[in-house]
Amino acid sequence: MRLFAGIPLAAEVIEELSAISLRLQTSGDGLRWSAPESWHITLQFLGNTGQPQCECIVARLRELRSPPLPIQLEDLGFFDRAGVFFAGVALTAELRLLQERVTAATGLCGFVPETRPYHPHITLARTKSKGRGLEGLKSRIRRHPGFTGFVAAGFVLYESVTRPAGAHYEIRERFSLAVE
Fold first, then answer.
1. Which of 31, 35, 88, 150 has the fewest CB atoms within 10 Å, i.e. the most exposed one?
2. Which residues on adjacent β-strands are paired with residue 175?
3. Which helix (H) or strand (E) holds 70?
């Protein structure tokens, strides 16, 4: 199973992102738009994982202590080389600390943290072929929206299930954030 830890979004934020996505989509735009139910903020991608390792992850993440944290979305943006359109997420000290605690916990199960800097975001669309489709989308963005902030009261261990229409994310386990 392919696993990752992430923060689910508040309903208000999903509504805001849905409105933006619907406004920007055009037929034949060369993009594969992500479904709102798949939107999340990744804390750590774990990849292919066996059942014993999954049990270790769940046990270690259950031990993690962190208070609820404020989440604020930023501007819309692009990872041009990867062909990704996203909504940026402010990298606060609280979010960075949670991400570091998650990677430390999974490290006890044999996972190695990414070497790239953590760049929290919500993937809204991907190009069907690398690089093509983003230029047209960039020209349709006339202003950057303001987003509603929310407080994340927990995070989730997701399983990415590959289907012909794209990946589908199933919740394997939920973890609450509580005052330390």
1. 35
2. 155
3. strand 69-71
**Domain containing residue 103:** 2-176
R_g (Cα) of the chain, nearest Å? 17
Q: Which residue has the tokens 């990946």?
A: 167
Helix, strand, coil share of the chain (percent; to 5): 30, 35, 35
Neighbouring-strand partners of residue 155: 175
What is the three-class DSSP state of 45?
Answer: strand
Question: How much is the pTM?
Answer: 0.92
Tens of pLDDT, residue by residue, the chain (180 residues): 999 999 999 999 999 999 999 999 988 888 889 999 999 999 999 999 999 999 999 999 999 989 999 999 999 999 988 899 999 999 999 999 999 999 999 999 999 888 999 999 999 999 877 656 788 888 888 777 789 999 999 999 999 998 777 778 999 999 999 865
Which residues, 6 or more positions from 77, have their beta carbon under 8 angstroms from its beta carbon? Answer: 85, 86, 87, 88, 121
How many structural domains is the chain composed of? 1
